[in-house]
Amino acid sequence: MNQNSRFYEEPARSLPVIAECDVLVIGGGPGGIGAAVAAARNGAKTILVERFGSFGGTWTAGLLSAIMPYPFVKGLFLELVERWTQAGGWNTWGDKYGAGGSYDSEAAKVVLDRFIVDAGITPFFFAQATAVIREGSRLTGVIIESKEGRQVIRAKMIIDSSGDGDVSALAGVPVEQGRAGDGAVQPMSMLFKMTGVDDEALEAYRKIDLQLTTEWQAAKARGEVTVPREDVLLGRNPRAGEWNFNTTRIVNKDGTKLRDVTDAMIEGRRQVFEVAAFLRKRIPGFANAVVSETAPHIGVRETRRVRCDYTITADDIMGVLPVEDCIARGNWFIDIHSPTGEGTERAHPPAGSWYEIPYRSIRAQGLDNLLVASRCIDSSHEAHAAIRITPQVMAIGEGAGTAAALAVAQGHCDTRQVDVKLLRDTLRTKGAFV
């Protein structure tokens, strides 16, 4: 190697093929869980690769703890909520289906383990995609890397549920990132929990509308708080005295860049303890509360968006028009946290209606057997801000996994030859709302 060179030529080597399957899902977050379980339950031999030591992605490694309202998502997600409830790990925000809720992240891990294993899926933890094997318009395998080194998994159909579109980018599929003009993405957040909260005192305080926000903004004006966010987002967990917080905001960082993610983790933890100090000093119920957990991984709202056969736009979200190839529905609004500081832009679809996610928007451009099933499906920056909510992402994954299994069963293993009517009928028979 030339000592002045910025590159190193890696010697060629043979890699072991450790497994073969019908459907390979990369990424075990909400979309990957939906995809893997749907594929397996529809008869496909399925492998799920996850880079952390638990399933759930942002639910567990990201410590999200809260599920936004999901009135138009059923299917596998509704089954999962029922399992969380049976495990004593779910707290509903309201008394009707789809009202939203919070969950115990440790109970969630165990429930998700059973959800995957009981479906007959072969899981691999602590591994992630580092390269793909592409032959023309098909991927024949994915190279993963773990403590055992680089290994190959071969598959007939592949689903990119990595969140950041890693498989798609490695395969050369076009991607976009950020908003038009400057490419800036929504900020990251370090989520955290506090325990020892006096629930009754805090709930009584919160009954006075905007009181917490007013106190937060006053603290910012005094210089007690430097977090570039305009309010405090918190939720009550199933355990007494435990609350979750999505209040930190780390701006001007790219979740696909090693240095940026490192800096975001450090800044995120600093902000966590700044927020906690404010709460203990200024807000009733927190006098004896402590930070009990910070997320193992920073929460990432937006990175790459993978180009597929159709780009979902803000007009699609706001227009709530039906599409013939709908695989999932949602009603979360366009919710753009400022990429550069304070402020959140919001635009709501008509009340009581839903927008539809078309199958076209998850078929990766230029490849016959790659589907996308996470927040990085093909959408504009604005539409992405609505689609990215986790129940909707799991529903998208359920659609992708079902399509992949049908492609295998029909023998063509081609995403564009899947009969859309059969796909939707199959989803309906499994309880999905499409």
UniProtKB/TrEMBL annotation:
It holds the Pfam family FAD_oxidored. This is FAD-dependent oxidoreductase. The keyword Mitochondrion does not apply. It comes from Rariglobus hedericola. One of its GO terms (molecular function) is metal ion binding. It comes from the Bacteria. Keywords: 4Fe-4S, Iron, Iron-sulfur, Metal-binding, Oxidoreductase. PANTHER family: COB--COM HETERODISULFIDE REDUCTASE IRON-SULFUR SUBUNIT A (PTHR43498:SF1), FERREDOXIN:COB-COM HETERODISULFIDE REDUCTASE SUBUNIT A (PTHR43498). InterPro entries: FAD/NAD-bd_sf (IPR036188), HdrA-like (IPR039650).
